[in-house]
């Protein structure tokens, strides 16, 4: 491709972009923003996107998945059929046609694929089957400020498998899991597969694939001693199961703590440690109030609470609900003397406490020397807090550390979550009707592009892995007005094309400094420069990643190319 004719508008500054991938993709002219969270892919960006898609397709095809293309516009009644129109939340984009019929812009396609299969597959003999597609998805993100990492329209590969039994699902899940390992390795990403929560998708046995990066919004709990990794939402906190130490606790005392609402404020006011204070939080789980207790130095884990209760929706109670149930505003809640009877769930660490401080369910007051069983009852003890740095690894007993991660893929065992409610059934080998069993497997294609940039860049620009680079070689003619340089550069360009190598030829009438700066920004793996020694048949090459380069005689280029290209892999 001749750069003189390419749409590749570079920018020197992008003040509105916070993430490095967002900045560099805008600067290099790979993308342009149309609206918040909505981007156009320009030629260089689209070539990278296509390279990622090609790798994904190759690995999907290897495991026997078949490519389809499903509509982006979904009849709203399909989402009502599964109950997800309500539970998915405000991220679901909805619209009406001219006849007032309601539609959803697809953020994912479980409903549509289930609707297709329930009409087309009715016997176990046609299973298992795996289908995948690559298309745009839509989610009304609240804060789409991170470029391709969090967009309102984005490119995604979603796949779905259908089975007659759990063993078949397990086999296919393992195939997809390995395919994802292959895909992300080929993309040049440093990633981890972590235990995760299925969220609005439903199902069990799910893993997220995280590209490790400080730009990530997710916290990954990783072991220093083994391969264990988990999303912080799902990381199990180990508890030895021992009984609390029996000590004599002074009688419960009410203390005025006017204006002291937070754990830090209460602990400071009473001159005690935060771990001696209990944090009481009122949740509404599917319209039912639940009081959750955790130690003051720990963080609540809403996902664990939701899963523990088997709730569809769980939210912190509004202030009016808090006062109605507890009799006091937030900041002064506790399990003693509740206004209404509610279920009380305590974390293991709270159950191990003897002498604690809790809210008095009375504004500006707390209770000191509180002991459960004597002063209040716990209905259920469970792991409901976030794991912390230094906690024990649930796999090997080692020590946990944290890393930031970008979710680039997710695999689920959906089971019969969708087939049951949508009457997706087959006749089994005994002639009995049963819902088919499903798996779901997603990859954020455009998010993967941004993740690669987050992990592969320097102060001068992007450094693309060879597998996804828009071109393998960036050929730069330093001075196109010099006939010798222009002629030699043209000869090199023609030779590289005959070799079947993707090459971008910078034949623009620009200054050398501009060309080299743009070249670093683009991040193409190998640069070949035709400059002042062209008359002697001398050209130069430079590896973008290593910075290693040298001079080379033109007649030796063809022979040297295989080794130069090999160094890029």
UniProtKB/TrEMBL annotation:
Q: Which PROSITE patterns match?
A: AA_TRNA_LIGASE_II (PS50862)
Give a Gene Ontology cellular component term annotated to this protein: cytosol
Record has Translocase as a keyword: no
EC category: ligase
Could you confirm whether the keyword Membrane appears in this record?
no
Q: Which InterPro entries match?
A: aa-tRNA-synt_IIb, aa-tRNA-synth_II, aa-tRNA-synth_II/BPL/LPL, Anticodon-bd, Anticodon-bd_dom_sf, Pro-tRNA-ligase_IIa, Pro-tRNA-synth_IIa_bac-type, Pro-tRNA-Synthase_IIa_type1
Domain remark in the UniProt entry: Consists of three domains: the N-terminal catalytic domain, the editing domain and the C-terminal anticodon-binding domain.
Q: What is this protein called?
A: Proline--tRNA ligase
Q: Which organism is it from?
A: Polycladospora coralii
